[in-house]
Design a protein that fits this description.
The protein is an alpha+beta fold. It has one helix and five strands. The two termini are 22 Å apart.
């Protein structure tokens, strides 16, 4: 299960860095959410504030292109990453 989650995280973060990624996941309330996100520099404008918060390896941060805000998801809830 841990190996599967790490591969899912790797594949999703690679697609987010490369450009726009289409993926779906289960939200905390049980509903399925289809998201369009990106972490590529040109797709959002954000200035790093220099926070020193420790990152959770199960969380993936992304910029939601529909909501125009940063979001995160738990990688264990990821259903699918579109090709």
């Amino acid at each position: 299960a841990a190996l599967s989650a790490s591969w899912k995280r790797f594949k999703l973060t690679q697609k987010l860095r490369a450009g726009i990624a289409y993926f779906s996941f289960t939200k905390a309330d049980g509903t399925i959410r289809e998201a369009i996100g990106s972490n590529r520099e040109g797709n959002h404008s954000y200035e790093y504030t220099g926070t020193t918060k420790k990152e959770n390896p199960l969380q993936v941060k992304y910029f939601d292109l529909e909501k125009r805000a940063f979001r995160s998801l738990n990688i264990t809830r990821l259903i699918e990453v579109a090709a």
